[in-house]
Amino acid sequence: DTAVSQTPKYLVTQMGNDKSIKCEQNLGHDTMYWYKQDSKKFLKIMFSYNNKELIINETVPNRFSPKSPDKAHLNLHINSLELGDSAVYFCASSPPGASTDTQYFGPGTRLTVL
Amino acid sequence: AQSVSQHNHHVILSEAASLELGCNYSYGGTVNLFWYVQYPGQHLQLLLKYFSGDPLVKGIKGFEAEFIKSKFSFNLRKPSVQWSDTAEYFCAVNQGYKLSFGAGTTVTVRA
């Protein structure tokens, strides 16, 4: 069974478009995250939600808007896509009651902006 | 702010060689430390973690890491690598909900 899943796996789009990436976890976790991995493989946290509440927002442009309809889902919507948004986006989740516990990562979504 | 440094950008070695990857962090308080591995084209997977107790932790696939508090280090080791260990290795430190990653070390194992 997939623990943390993301759709789509690949996303190719034109500059200026709006796109969404979906994430779902079936681990019963309370906290979910979005990370961006750039072309040099550097991973940086973007957002974190705990029980549908935003707890981390790491100076990400407001073109990026996370949405958590419930604890099991954290979607990422990106408006007015730019070339620099090309990256692999990873969703992750961690168990309830332990903010410092292991994070479990999804398979990633490779976004290419042309 | 928390920072995590990985000493090696790219390591190339032959099968059966020993591997050691360095990791240092800057935070002086209580930390939780992790090593994640990313095989080509795959997502991150946890290799091992240290929260407390024995500073020598053993993970999956024969990996181990040693936490040395006085040196702010958490180095990863494997006595004898295999071709299948070719991957990107990330050290990470947890500060509250935020996991800070090092820049990663690419490990290439030649058959």
Mean pLDDT of chain A: 91
Q: Beta-strand level of the residues of chain B, as a percent range?
A: over 45%
| Superfamily (CATH H level) name of chain A | Immunoglobulins
Distance between the termini of chain B: 41 Å
Counting helices, strands and paired strands, the structural category of chain B is mainly beta
Give a count of the beta strands of chain B, DSSP E runs of length 2 or more. Answer: 12
| Tally of discrete structural domains of chain A | 1
Low-pLDDT runs of 5+ residues of chain B are: none
Identify the CATH architecture of chain B.
Sandwich
What kind of assembly state do the chains in view correspond to? heterodimer
Which value, in Å, is the CA radius of gyration of chain B? 13 Å
CATH class of chain B: Mainly Beta
Question: Please, could you describe this protein's structure?
Answer:
The complex is a heterodimer of chains A (114) and B (111). Chain A has strands spanning 4-7, 10-13, 19-25, 31-37, 43-50, 53-57, 64-70, 73-78, 87-94, 104-105, 109-113. With 114 residues, chain A is an all-beta fold. Chain A has a single domain (4-113), classed as Immunoglobulins (Immunoglobulin-like, Sandwich), CATH 2.60.40. In chain A, the strands form 2 sheets. In chain A, strands 2, 4, 5, 6, 9, 10 and 11 form a 7-stranded mixed sheet that branches. A 4-stranded antiparallel sheet of chain A has the order 1-3-8-7, with no helix packed on it. In chain A, a hairpin with a 2-residue loop joins strand 5 (43-50) and strand 6. The relative contact order of chain A is 0.34. The mean pLDDT of chain A is 91. Chain B has 111 residues and is mainly β. Chain B has one domain: Immunoglobulin-like, CATH 2.60.40.10. In chain B, strand 5 (32-38) and strand 6 form a beta hairpin. The A-B interface holds A 31, 33, 40-45, 48, 50, 55-56, 58, 90, 92, 94, 99-108 and B 32, 34, 36, 38, 42-46, 49, 51, 88, 90, 94, 96-101, 103-104, 106.
